[in-house]
Design a protein that fits this description.
about 35% helix; 5-stranded antiparallel sheet
Length: about 220
Amino acid sequence: MSTVQDASSVSSLFGASAAATSKSATTETEDRFLALLVAQMKNQDPLNPLDNAEVTSQMAQLSTVQGIEDMNSTLEALAASMGVNQMAQAANLIGHGVLVPGDSISPAQNEDVMGFELKRPADQVTIDIHDAGGNVVRSLNLGPREDGVSALAWDGLTNAGTPAPAGQYRFSVNAVQGGQPVSSTALHLGLVNSVSQDSQGVQLNLAGSKNVSYADVRQIF
């Protein structure tokens, strides 16, 4: 909990610093504009004075620039706040299993869960599990499935009914509807060890030194 509070404090300091910098830049722009406008009015030709419409237009442009800078500052502060909140939410996943894009699987316990995400319903879904050489060791006929995420566990057996040797395997998803292929995404189970944040956003650091985006999580166990 203290880590989240510290992160929030740091974010606030950075947000305040960015706002102060933006405010200083805006003030300098206003001062330069007003100085130029006053000098222009003092040195205008009495026979050809400044047009009121032109002055009004220049004031409107300054107001527009200031409004854009204020909006940018607000958006930056909002983005920083959302990043801290997302880090706090992601921290709750530490120690949990998550389904994320990937096709690796193992007959070992806690590594035997796999899943898939369908873009639309399918009247036939088949999963083939391949060994390191690409050979199919097990085919699973799942029948019809609705769109969205589905998860299942491999019993570790081959098509012959014998236990598959220990090791890493991969699986492929074949889904069809009315004879036409249905777009699918293979999902595998990963254990969340820690979370971090970089230029790409909040990242989940999974067992096995694999990192995935927090937005990639499809299901939590």
